[in-house]
Write a structure and sequence with these properties.
alpha/beta; Spore Coat Polysaccharide Biosynthesis Protein SpsA, Chain A; nine-stranded mixed β-sheet; two-stranded antiparallel sheet; 8 helices; 13 strands; metal-binding
Length: about 240
C-alpha cells in the first residue's frame, strides 16, 4: 500500500501566518506540521508517500523533506493547481497509486493512534474503503457526520442540521483502486469542489465503507488558531511524558 498526504489549500483561516507559507509548514511544538502525518505513515509501515501541495510553496516542501530518506521513506511530489476539493486532490494520485490501495492523510491531521494494524487488515480486504471517525461534542459544526450500524457505515452527511451520531469524519482514509473511477463520476458541489464526503458515499452505497474510531487525541490543526495552539500543547505534553 502507498501513502498520500494532502498538503495544499489556501488556509485562509490561519492568515496572516499563511500569507507567507503553507500551513503544513507551520511549527507544531518542535517540528513542522507536515512531519506528523509523515511519521504516521512510517508507523503504519508505508514506504512510498506522495505529497500533494499547491504551486506557491512547493519548493519549500522539497527543500525541507528532500527525497524522504531521513524518514526512511521514498517521497514523490505533485501539484494541485487549484484548490478544487479533497476528492480532486486524491485524484491527482492516480499514476502514483499504480492500481494499488492507498492510505490518505490530510496534512493537518495530528493524532496519536498507530494505524499499522488497520493497514494490514485493509490490505487483506478484496475491496472497499475505511474512514476514520472521532466522537465529537460539536460534530455537525464543521465535519461530515458518520452513521454506523453493525460496524458498517450507513450514511455520511456533511454538516447536517440534525446529526444522526456524534462521530465526525476525520481526514484519514483508506481506499481500494476503484477510488479514481468514483472520482471521475463526481460532480462539483455548490462551492465548486469535488467533496470527499460525496466520494466516500460511493462506498457507503455499495456497503463496503467501514469506520474506525480513533483512540486517543486527534487535532485538525489547520482549522483555527485555537486548534493550532491545542496541537502544540498536546504534542508538548506527549513529549514530556516520553521523557519521564
Amino acid at each position: 500500500m502507498k501513502g498520500v498526504i494532502l498538503a495544499g489549500g489556501n488556509a485562509t483561516r490561519l492568515r496572516p501566518l499563511t500569507w507567507v507559507t503553507n500551513k503544513h509548514l507551520l511549527p507544531i511544538y518542535n517540528k513542522p506540521m507536515i512531519f506528523y502525518p509523515l511519521e504516521s505513515m512510517v508507523r503504519a509501515g508505508i514506504k512510498d508517500v506522495l505529497i500533494i501541495t499547491g504551486p506557491n510553496h512547493s519548493g519549500s516542501f522539497i527543500n525541507l523533506l528532500k527525497s524522504g530518506k531521513d524518514f526512511n521513506l521514498r517521497l514523490s511530489y505533485e501539484i494541485q493547481e487549484d484548490a478544487a476539493g479533497i476528492a480532486q486532490a486524491i485524484g491527482i494520485a492516480r499514476d502514483f497509486a499504480d492500481s494499488g490501495k492507498m492510505l490518505v492523510i490530510l496534512g493537518d491531521n495530528i493524532f496519536i493512534q498507530p494505524l499499522k494494524e488497520n493497514v494490514d487488515e485493509f490490505e487483506k480486504r478484496q475491496k472497499g474503503a475505511v474512514v476514520y471517525g472521532k466522537h465529537m461534542a460539536t460534530v455537525s459544526k464543521q465535519y461530515g457526520v458518520i452513521e454506523v450500524r453493525d460496524g458498517k457505515v450507513v450514511s455520511i452527511e456533511e454538516k447536517p442540521q440534525k446529526p444522526k451520531s456524534d462521530i465526525g469524519q476525520t481526514g484519514i482514509y483508506m481506499y481500494d483502486n476503484r477510488v479514481f473511477d468514483f472520482i471521475d463520476d463526481l460532480k462539483p458541489s455548490a462551492r465548486g469542489e469535488l467533496e470527499v464526503t460525496d466520494l466516500n458515499n460511493y462506498y457507503v452505497e455499495e456497503g463496503t465503507m467501514i469506520c474506525k474510531i480513533l483512540k486517543g487525541w486527534w487535532v485538525d490543526a489547520g482549522t483555527s488558531f485555537d486548534e493550532l495552539l491545542r496541537a502544540n500543547l498536546l504534542v508538548a505534553e506527549e513529549i514530556k511524558k516520553e521523557k519521564k
